UniProtKB/TrEMBL annotation, chain A:
HAMAP family xref list: CcmE
Keywords from the UniProt entry: Cell inner membrane, Cell membrane, Cytochrome c-type biogenesis, Heme, Iron, Membrane, Metal-binding, Signal-anchor, Transmembrane, Transmembrane helix
Keyword Cell inner membrane: yes
Family membership noted in the UniProt record: Belongs to the CcmE/CycJ family.
Keyword Transmembrane in record: yes
Function: Heme chaperone required for the biogenesis of c-type cytochromes. Transiently binds heme delivered by CcmC and transfers the heme to apo-cytochromes in a process facilitated by CcmF and CcmH.
Residues exposed to the Extracellular side: 30-155
UniProt GO cellular component terms: plasma membrane
Residues annotated as transmembrane: 12-30
Protein name: Cytochrome c-type biogenesis protein CcmE
Stored NCBIfam families: PRK13254.1-1, PRK13254.1-3, PRK13254.1-5
Segments in the Cytoplasmic topological domain: 1-8
TrEMBL record, chain B:
Family: Belongs to the CcmF/CycK/Ccl1/NrfE/CcsA family.
Single GO MF descriptor: heme transmembrane transporter activity
Segments crossing the lipid bilayer: 6-29, 41-62, 96-114, 121-142, 178-198, 210-230, 250-266, 275-293, 313-332, 353-378, 390-409, 421-444, 450-468, 489-514, 616-636
Biased composition range(s): Basic and acidic residues: 648-660
UniProt xrefs under InterPro entries: CcmF_C (IPR032523), Cyt_c_assembly (IPR002541), Cyt_c_biogenesis (IPR003567), Cyt_c_biogenesis_CcmF (IPR003568)
Record's subcellular location: Cell inner membrane
Topology in the lipid bilayer: Multi-pass membrane protein
Superkingdom per UniProt: Bacteria
Domain Cytochrome c assembly protein: from-to ranges: 89-297
Cytochrome c-type biogenesis protein CcmF C-terminal domain: residues covered: 316-638
The name this protein goes by in its record: Heme lyase NrfEFG subunit NrfE
Alphabetical keyword list: Cell inner membrane, Cell membrane, Cytochrome c-type biogenesis, Lyase, Membrane, Transmembrane, Transmembrane helix
Length: 155, 669
């Protein structure tokens, strides 16, 4: 083999080995960091392993928000209009969090079926429904176009 | 009537771009001078008509013409004038018109600053850009007409600009980002023109380099502005969230960074030719991908525009045709490109190759992390998300490797460098970096932190190896100032951009590991402490802005008992929509930021709030400014201006052969 070919081969092998290692690492890192999404019904029916990091999406149930007066504790329920899951969160909720709005929360479910959120997300645009919330409602058979609590009153 | 004139002007621009997309390219293939010479006037015409179009749209916003759909959707009569004007790009239609107008601006720039390039080449470049223009304007006319009216009953007032957008960041971030993004279309067009002509020589790389550098510099600023804006506006104390819409600009930026380095090798040494072309195509695909993700409604994010599936399909079609066509052309032409393989295993070429591989792998991993949830959903119908830990786990180590290479690359020589020379040059630098990295954090923080050591070692490694290289370069000159004057602008550009990497690294590393925050409930008069900082809550009062009412809180901030002044975070309610919004208060500093966000009011005037201390966070954006300055300096190097005096490409190719590269010691990537 000619010298320059050998050199070329060395470089190609080196790059290929590097790429293989990095693809392996990428896939490993990815498999460690996938958060599965669940609907309130799935959580209420116990499909989620206790302690597993998941995302849950639904509407904040009307009249369910209770916030402590002497701490940052908040408790509310998220619903797909079939089942409601209680969520506990300690911290400051996003600006657009309110009853009747769609939210997505990240966290874990405990043995009592309470969801402990580490993060709560609400959309920046009020007219925009998160894809995940919509999926949850679709799964529950709620028509997001016509459901009375989803259609904003004309102003 | 006036909005219709805007649409009419848009249609005229469309007709002109059809001409630009066809005649000059055909002319170039048939050596028809008349057709080729049409390219410049057509490009100017498109710029003028798109300018009229966007000007008219701006006029409808300023004059509150709520019969135009997007004005009614994105503006409001109470909105301050500067937001009325910028509300233009607050939604999908207007921002896409801005995007297209930017493209025509770049086209005009190409037609003005291409006097020295052969006319066939200019005709092809402008022709390719004209084709892009055709698809963009067609997209607007077919699916997202910005001049659409509301008939028969226009509303009395608009429903207001999204409150999160009513901010200075919104005025500067989208235009800058678009400008950088669209700039990569120009580099793409250069690559396609070269493929069409079948002549991929050093001249092509030399013509592309200033454009690539400038686009890259603008994109750097655009991304940094977005990060800075998210930091102070969104109120969660972060500066980067690995949001699916933040990622495509970063992917484009990483590919663009690889491209400007690879272009350097192609220009200087005539190797990596086909790789460079591929990178130009990929960087452009990154920018289209960003458009696709934002506008198709496929992903949920703070950036997503209200979705419409037909738009997504349309952009996907543009993406597939443009990128697919380019790759097909590449596949046909690439085998004809022959690169001389004249370099050793330890050479500047190899270090730049390593740079390219690392950058492309990081871009690919971010791409995977961004797209995987979508692909997964399409295949299984299950929704998943991939969190920031994935991106951090991948990106961190790759950047560490990249920075190690960064220290060695500029020091090494083209073709062949002896390993012992590099070791001899860099051993002391490495030792000094490690010493600084261990001692400095210890002196400042009084504790041993692995993360801080890594960051400071790497930053010192960049700075010291740069200093060493600079010293080598001027060592045999009579005086220091004389030596400094002999170095080229592109060398200084490289140095400054690389220093920017060091500055940003310090910012990213130290902010990530040493930021502190506390969420508390405070009654008026109570104090919360964070490290050596104390924040005293002095109560809140109602206040009013032009289009909102607010509760404004007053905080007295002190450090070790010395007062640092007062901060006034607000919680606003925008009147048009009743949307609440928090306005944090920031005490910005060179070494640390302090900031406070308000939550909600509880009993007896008490508020929930979060206070943050963010060391070195400004350095992140400072680093970006350094990089952008570096990129701009490199683009204005006098060898590109000298080039303008040359008559034809043939001269340059000939010159390339007789002028050995060793005559240019200050060659820079």
């Amino acid at each position: 083999m000619k010298a320059h070919r050998q050199k070329k081969l060395t470089i190609i092998l080196f790059v290929a080995a590097g790429l293989t290692v990095s693809v392996g690492l990428i896939l490993f890192a990815m498999s460690q960091n996938i958060n599965l999404f669940y609907t309130p019904t799935q959580v209420a029916e116990g499909e989620v392993t206790i302690g597993q990091q998941i995302r849950i999406g639904g509407m904040v149930k009307e009249g369910s928000v209770v916030s402590a007066n002497d701490s940052l504790q908040v408790r509310f329920e998220t619903t797909d209009f079939i089942h409601a899951v209680p969520i506990e969160y300690e911290g400051i909720l996003p600006d657009l969090f309110r009853e009747g709005q769609g939210i997505v929360a990240e966290g874990t479910v405990d043995a009592a079926g309470v969801f402990h959120a580490s993060r709560v997300l609400a959309k920046h645009d009020e007219n925009y429904m998160s894809q995940e919330v919509k999926a949850a409602l679709d799964a529950a058979g709620v028509n997001t176009e016509t459901h009375p609590s989803l259609v904003a009153p004309e102003s | 009537m006036i909005p219709e004139l805007g649409q009419f002007s848009l249609i005229l621009a469309f007709c002109l771009s059809i001409l630009l997309g066809t005649l000059p390219i055909i002319g170039a293939a048939r050596s028809n001078m008349v057709w080729m010479n049409l390219a410049r006037p057509l490009a100017t015409g498109i710029f003028v008509f798109l300018g009229i179009s966007i000007g008219i749209l701006a006029y409808t916003f300023v004059t509150d013409d709520f019969s135009v759909q997007i004005v009614a959707a994105q503006s409001n009569s109470l909105l301050p004038m500067h937001y009325k004007l910028t509300a233009l790009w607050g939604g999908h239609e207007g921002s896409f018109l801005l995007w297209t107008f930017m493209l025509s601006g770049w086209m005009l720039a190409v037609s003005v600053f291409s006097k020295t390039m052969p006319i066939e080449f200019v005709a092809r470049v402008l022709g390719v850009l004209g084709l892009l223009c055709v698809s963009y304007i067609l997209f607007m006319l077919a699916t997202s007409n910005p001049f659409m009216r509301i008939v028969p009953l226009p509303p009395g007032d608009g429903s207001d600009l999204n409150t999160a957008l009513q901010d200075f960041g919104f005025i500067v971030h989208p235009p800058t980002l678009y400008m950088g993004y669209v700039g990569f279309s120009v580099v793409f067009a250069f690559a396609i023109a070269a493929l069409l002509s079948g002549r991929l020589d050093a001249a092509w790389a030399r013509w592309s380099r200033p454009w690539a550098n400038i686009s890259w510099a603008i994109l750097t600023i655009g991304i940094a502005l977005g990060s800075w804006w998210a930091y102070y506006e969104l109120g969660w104390g972060g500066w980067w969230a690995w949001d699916p819409v933040e990622n495509p600009p970063l992917i484009t930026w990483l590919l663009g960074t690889a491209l400007i380095h690879s272009l350097a090798v192609t220009e200087k040494r005539g190797v990596f030719k086909s790789w460079t072309v591929l990178l130009a195509i990929l960087a452009f695909s990154g920018s289209l991908l960003g458009t696709f993700i934002t506008r198709s409604g496929l992903l949920t994010s703070v950036h997503a525009f209200a979705s419409d599936p037909t738009r997504g399909v349309f952009i996907l079609a543009i993406l597939v045709i443009a990128v697919g066509g380019a790759l097909l052309l590449y596949a046909i032409r690439a085998p004809q490109m022959k690169s001389e393989f004249g370099f050793g295993l330890v050479s500047r070429e190899i270090f730049l190759l390593a740079n390219n591989v690392l950058l492309v792998v990081s871009a690919a991993s971010i791409f995977l992390g961004t797209m995987f949830p979508m692909i997964y959903q399409a295949l299984t119908d299950d929704l998943i998300s991939i969190g920031p830990p994935y991106f951090n786990a991948i990106f961190g180590p790759l950047m560490i490797l990249l920075i190690l290479v960064l220290g060695v690359g500029p020091m090494s020589r083209w073709k062949r460098t002896s390993t012992s020379y590099l070791v001899q040059q860099l051993a002391k630098v490495a030792a000094a970096s490690i010493a600084i990295g261990v001692v400095l954090p210890l002196l400042v923080l009084f504790e041993i932190s692995f993360a801080a050591i890594i960051c400071v070692v790497l930053a010192s490694w960049i700075v010291l190896s740069m200093a060493k290289d600079l010293r080598n370069k001027i060592a045999n000159k009579e005086t220091v100032s004389k030596g400094l004057r002999t170095l080229s602008l592109s060398y200084y550009g490289m140095q400054i951009a690389h220093i920017g990497v060091a500055v940003m690294l310090i910012g990213v590393g130290l902010t990530s590991y040493f930021s502190t925050e506390r969420s508390v409930l405070l009654a008026p008069g109570a104090t919360v402490t964070l490290g050596s900082y104390a924040f005293r809550f002095d109560g809140s009062e109602a206040t009013q802005g032009p289009n909102y009412i607010a509760d404004q809180a007053t905080f007295s901030v002190s450090k070790d008992g010395n007062s640092l002044g007062e901060l006034y975070p607000e919680r606003r309610i925008y009147l048009a929509t009743g949307t609440p919004s928090t306005e944090m208060a920031i005490d910005a500093g060179f070494l640390r930021d302090l900031f406070i966000t308000l939550g909600e009011e509880k009993e007896d005037g008490a508020w929930t709030m979060t206070v943050y201390v963010k060391p070195f966070v400004r350095w992140i954006w400072l680093g970006a400014i350094f990089m952008a300055i570096g990129g701009t300096l490199a683009a204005t190097d006098k060898r590109y201006r000298r080039l303008r005096q040359r008559k034809s490409a043939r001269d340059i190719t000939a010159k390339e052969k007789i002028e050995p590269d060793s005559l240019q010691p200050a060659a820079s990537p």
